[in-house]
Design brief:
mainly alpha; 16 helices
Amino acid sequence: MLTGTLFALAAGLLWGLVFVVPLLLPEYPPALLSTARYLAFGLIALPLAWVDRARLRELARADWVEAGKLALVGNLLYYLCLAAAIQRAGGPLPTVIIGTLPVVIAVSSNLRNARRDGRLPWLRLAPSLALIAAGIALVNHAELQHLRSAQSIDVGRHALGALLAVGAVACWTWYPLRNADWLRAHPERSPRVWATAQGLATLPLAAAGLAAVWLGLGLSGDTLDLPLGPQPQRFVALMLALGLLASWIGGLCWNEASQRLPTALAGQLIVFETAAALAYAFVLRRSAPPAATLLGVGLLLAGVIWALRIRPEPLPEARAGVPH
């Protein structure tokens, strides 16, 4: 439990970085950021794949198909929605919408995976979910107050950003459930190898997507200085950093956590990503978070600590050995 929690914490700290990069590269279209980040991830996975080539050969065709689905939805589509949301609504608002993931995943997993993982009792889980929901609401309220105080707020643009963030939530509710399914079904497999396999599966998708983005921008007459944009050195450095730190190492840490923890509990630990992303956003904004935000983050962490005290209970038919 402790080891899995520490791996989830490390993943959250690394994943928080992905919320900052779209703000550091505001001129770059979200599709370019998403495909370039995962192209970097795929290229970084190549030498790692050579090291683990024997274990990768053990993966069946169905495993590679699953890795491709996870790469498409949990990597490319998720970050496309997230980057677009951040560029339209700023950092904190999409962050707190993504912050609903701990509640959404915990509830979904407790309904879906109770036979495999045991069920976290709803009455004991409710205080944790309530604390996390209250923390999200407080942070969201504080950010909305900040937006209302802005002199030139574009309500439609921020609403679109919020809608895109909801799309990112849908992608990343599906991803950890399916990823945990594979990891729990293959306890003998290395989480590191599975992270590398997803990188390899991402590479052709990202390469094709990046080519399509470049072609589309060229045909549209976009003034972006292709292929690397107006800040080529920063762009390449940030894409490589995300590919290595957030995608591969972050994915590895999350796989390690997913193999050790019930999915309903692991889902709540995504709150570490929310806390890290908020901290990074306020550092970038060069302002201290308001009291409501700090209280909200405190409630988020309190909800996670409460959840860690809960142990799954096997369903009656599982205890009795009834086949299912």
